[in-house]
Amino acid sequence: MATYTHGHHESVLRSHRWRTAENSAAYLLPRLSSGVTVLDIGCGPGTITADFAALVTPARVTALEVKQEALDLARAEIARRGLANVDFAVGDVHALDFPDASFDVVHAHQVLQHVTDPVAALREMRRVTKPGGVVAVRDSDYKAFAWYPELPELDEWMALYQRVARGNGGEPDAGRRLLAWARAAGLTDVTVTSSTWCFATQEDRDWWGHMWADRILKSDMASTALRTGAADEAGLNRVSTAWRAWAADPDGWMSLLHGELIARV
């Protein structure tokens, strides 16, 4: 695995806990129903996982994370919701510790952009998918993000994120590459789509902008940027202030593009 750029600071989890099956996996929902087994790779704090579990019960969902500490976040969410059909596993998407043809659906949200070898990861995902099942992946495409007003400090933020993410071995513009990666992995029966998150109301701007204002100062991305010399504290504070200014602007608007792919096995 590559180094996870964001880490698990509260400012990061604030974003990840907002995610639901509806706002982050709508492309997959028609394939989920009672009795469908799911492997959720890179489950994070488990909000999407929990939604899946409710949809497919009594079938089981397996939540997978690369470290036990991260998996414990999902355990807490599943316990909070009182769900009894979720299993938990620590593992690496490049070498999944499951037999061939174990799951009906193998899902990964915002994972391939962080791994060392996304093609190898997709091959492993296909291996553990049952014949007739699907591999489903969704990843953002940072270079395709758009915002207004066009604050130069947000251009700094984008350039910094690209530098740090690639320095960690990831690919921040993964969304546009999903089809190419899937073809390289030998997946042929594929459907590709895209979708966006849009933040334009005052409530949405306050949440997104203040989250990033904190994240640029306190997350693992910030500590990596400082350690590697990609940014200094003055630069990070400048970007943080710009995020708050964007959030306060009634004309503020931001759209985040995501690539999506379903591959039938």
What does this structure look like?
Helix 1 packs antiparallel against helix 8 (202-218), helix 6 packs across helix 10 (233-248) and helix 8 (202-218) packs antiparallel against helix 10 (233-248). The protein has ten helices and eight strands. By secondary structure, the chain is an alpha/beta fold. Strands 1, 2, 3, 4, 5, 6, 7 and 8 form an eight-stranded mixed sheet that branches. Helix 5 (118-127) links the parallel strand 4 and strand 5. The chain is globular, with a radius of gyration of 18 Å.
Task: Please identify the oligomeric state.
Answer: single chain
Order of helices and strands: HHEHEHEEHEEHHEHHHE
What is the makeup of the main sheet? 8 strands, mixed
Estimate the mean pLDDT confidence: 96
Query: Judging from the principal axes of the Cα atoms, what is the shape?
Result: globular
| pLDDT < 50 stretches | none
| Strand-residue proportion | 15-25%
Backbone structural class:
alpha/beta
- Give me the count of strands: 8
The rounded Rg comes to 18 Å
Count of helical segments? 10
How much helicity do the residues have?
40-55%
Distance between the termini: 24 Å
Structure in a nutshell:
This protein has 265 residues and is of the alpha/beta class.
Question: How is the secondary structure organized here?
Answer:
Layout: H1 10-16, H2 21-24, E1 38-41, H3 47-56, E2 61-65, H4 68-81, E3 86-90, E4 103-109, H5 118-127, E5 129-140, E6 146-148, H6 152-167, H7 178-184, E7 189-199, H8 202-218, H9 220-228, H10 233-248, E8 253-264
Parallel strand pairs: 1-2, 1-4, 2-3, 4-5
Antiparallel strand pairs: 5-8, 6-8, 7-8
Helix pairs in contact: 1-8, 6-10, 8-9, 8-10
